[in-house]
Every structure is written in C-alpha cells, then in structure tokens.
Amino acid sequence: MHLPLIAILRGGYTGESVISLESAGTIMAALDAKRFDAAYISVERSGWTCTRADGTSLPFDRAGFTADRGQGHERFAAAFIMIHGTPGEDGKLQGYLDMLGVPYQTGGVLNMALTMSKFSTTGLLRQMGFPVSPSIIVHRDDPEAVSRVIREVGIPCFVKPDNSGSSLGISKVKTGDELGPALEKAFREDPTVMCEALIKGRELTCGVIQHRNRVQALPVCEIRTTREFFDFEAKYHAADTEEIVPAPVPDAIATIVQERSEAIYRALNCNGMVRIDHFWLEAQGDGQQVLTIEVNTVPGFTPVSIFPKMLAAAGISIGEVVNGMVERMVRA
What we know:
By secondary structure, the protein is of the alpha+beta class. The protein has 3 domains: 5-105, Rossmann fold; 113-131 and 200-297, ATP-grasp fold, B domain (D-amino Acid Aminotransferase, Chain A, domain 1); 135-197, ATP-grasp fold, A domain (Dna Ligase, domain 1, 2-Layer Sandwich), CATH 3.30.1490.20. 32% of the residues lie in helices and 26% in strands. The protein is built from 10 helices and 17 strands. The protein has helices at 17-30, 92-100, 109-116, 118-128, 145-152, 176-187, 232-236, 251-267, 306-313, 318-331, and strands at 5-11, 37-44, 47-51, 60-61, 66-68, 73-75, 78-81, 135-139, 157-161, 171-173, 192-197, 202-211, 214-217, 221-224, 242-244, 274-280, 290-296. The strands form 4 sheets. Strands 12, 13, 14, 15, 16 and 17 form a 6-stranded antiparallel beta sheet that branches.
C-alpha cells in the first residue's frame, strides 16, 4: 500500500527563499517516513520542480498538483507550505490548492492575504480592540509621502515594506533627513510602505499552534540585539543576537502576551504554526503596555529560528507538531 504523498513547498519569489529552503528541510527531517512519503516542490519564477530529499526528480504536473512515484501520476494528499513571502504567505498558493481540493496547514486565502499586509493586519487588530502602534500607509507615487509621515506619524519612526518578511527593507528613522532614503529602500521591496510610530520597549514574540485539538500559545521569547532593530542580519547572522526562551519578564506580562497571541490567532482565523510579535512598554502600567506589531503566518523554521526554540521550551518535539499537522490534513 502506498503511503500518503505529501508535498513540502519551498522557495518562493522573494529574498526569503534561502530561508525557506532551510525551513522546508526541517519539516522533511521531522516527517515520519513510516507514515508519509514526502517530496519537495520547489517554487521558482522559472518553474516548479519536484524532488526527493536526496535530490532525485519526480515527474510533476503543476496543473493537477500531481507527481509520479512509479505507478502513474497521483495528486498529493496534502501540502505543507514553508514558503516565506509570496506566493506561500499571501494567499496565492492557498487559492490554487483550494481549487484543486488539496489540504494545507496554513490559514486560508483571506487570512493569508490579510496578514501579509502589515498595515491591513494592524488596522484590523486596532478595529477589533487590540492595542497596536499608530501607523499610516504610503504609496510609491505619492509626492506628499515624506510630509505625511512627518505630520501623521512623526519622527522617530519605523519604515516597513507592507508586504515583506524577514525585516527586508525596514529602516529605523531617527531624523527627518533619514526618512527619504528609508522610503526609497522600502519601495525597492514593495510599492506600498507602512510607516509606524517608534515604540521603545522590549521585543517579545509568541508562537501559537494547534496542538492536540486545541489552540496553544508557546512560551514567550524575548529578542535582544545590539543592532538598531531585529533586522535580517540580526535574525540570521549576528553572533550577539539573543533569543531568550522563556522570556525573563514578569508572569503577568507573559500571560498577557500569550493570551493576546491566542486571541489574535482565533480572531484572524489562523491555522498551523503562527508567530505574533509584540513590544512591552515597561514604563506603562495600564492595559496598553503590550502593543502588537506583526503576525507571521509562515514563521522561519530553520535550526536557528525562534519557533523551534519555543517548542523545545514547551516540551513539545518538532516531530510531534509536524506529524500531527500532516495527519490532520490527510484525514480531512
């Protein structure tokens, strides 16, 4: 009897593709080969390819999302999407798989498209009553972009491409002279840019998973870096970046972060593994002391990523989570 054929989608169309390859490798290594037969689907603008873990190719048909492992083409039983950014984190692949009837572990089209936009996410969270930082959106062809940011957000601020991950194109702007170049840098990543009021506090992040049939927040992580902020270099290359799990914060703050992360996960109809970023404003003692910054619906899952560290701190193995998600998809 053939084992269920599982696709691990990797690559993508952004600078995060190199991280995706590592994240997908973690998933492949965690899958139980006695229960599932997995292959990589590498998604590139030049085309899609299907390979085994050892690099051998399988005949693949993108039109039907099928592969031939020796007895003719068959559709994949499930897809594990590990593409950070487009087209795996913005709803495009989800729509394609929905049309073919192939289950996947992330949120659906609306959830993924919405959360890919930082501004749309925080705007909806604000409307739902979750505390977030003030922000505006500016467009590449807006001649008043600089003056709007100064007038409506103020300096200092963060300038972020609205649909980019891994902190690509983000700048911390401390003077008015830095704003124009920061916008140009962000516009190279995305034609729409979110400008957000600077928050001074401790950066906390919390993973949320569906585990054993319930939504569960993982232990909170505190991120410390000597760089201006937690940028791509700090995330993946800087030797002095600290990711402390569990975070050395009061129990009450950890509880707020975990409960809010779970609530946001449910409110936005997330699924699978999600990481939600916050800032803790130590000086404030009211309900606004924790502000939510971002929702990451396909967080990095490399050996040095935060999410596996949070799972370890919770006493949950990567294999348990990954195989549990695939089992639920195959049964769906």
